Amino acid sequence: MEDLILVAGATGDLGGKICRSLRIKGARVRAIVREESSSEKVVELRESGVEVITVQFDDEKQLIAACNGVSCVVSVLAGLSDVIIMAQSHLLHAAIKAGVPRFIPSDFCTDFTKIQTGENRNFDLRREFQAILEAGNIRATSILNGAFAYVLQYGIPLLDTKSKSITYYSGKADWQIDFTTVEDTAAFTACAALDGNAPRFLRIASFQIAPTKLAILAESIFGEAFELNEQGTLEQFSAYIKIIRAGDPEGEKQLYPQWQQMQYLYSMFTAHHNALDNDRYAGLIWQTAETTLKGINNKKA
Length: 301
Hints:
CATH class of the largest domain: Alpha Beta
Largest sheet: 6 strands, parallel
Mean pLDDT: 97
CATH architecture of the largest domain: 3-Layer(aba) Sandwich
CATH topology of the largest domain: Rossmann fold
Number of strands: 13
């Protein structure tokens, strides 16, 4: 019998691409959505052959029914504590009660296991859920993909195409930063969802690149020299972020306040993959740093 994979968060970009990758591989896919989910996205899912079920995440019976017969639950939920802790816990407990053997949590990010508590609010939520997950009677696989490569198109300090500068921190000029495209993450996650022997953690990156190499590559792609800009130590950066966060209590209610974006940059220079699991599944083609920067340059043209 073919696998039945349940995807939560399927109306999002990554979730939708995971559904498509699973369908390409011949898997049956069931998506759970909220009543307020985009009707256009729901139609797209159904037209692609995905079974769509509308649920309330605080309704245990609905969630258990949705999990019946499922071989793996893939959570791509995004949000703060009410989503990452509460809604995802409801989904986890329903999967366990329905006898689902495997669960992939919404841990698509830099390796938060290497980052101290308090340095990244959104990663702290994942760490909190990890404790709940590991206490449950279910096999889990977290996919850690570093930073999503699309952040490079937003003019972040790491790659500022306006000022033609590359920001780094003391001693980190040659630090290898992990980047993975949404497409590559989705393709790999689909493989992992169908892999009954997948380990607890899988670490991937479309490419790894250091600030020094990024400056050289950016110059070749954009046709202008990029200056390497050292911004003090990571300890100083961390202290500055904490000051900004303390002065922005409203930001605690937002998914991506300014200080959270700074925390992501801090995390890029704090944790990276020493070894990659990219080769675990055959047939995957990983996007390069060169292709990524060329895409950014084409959008600017």
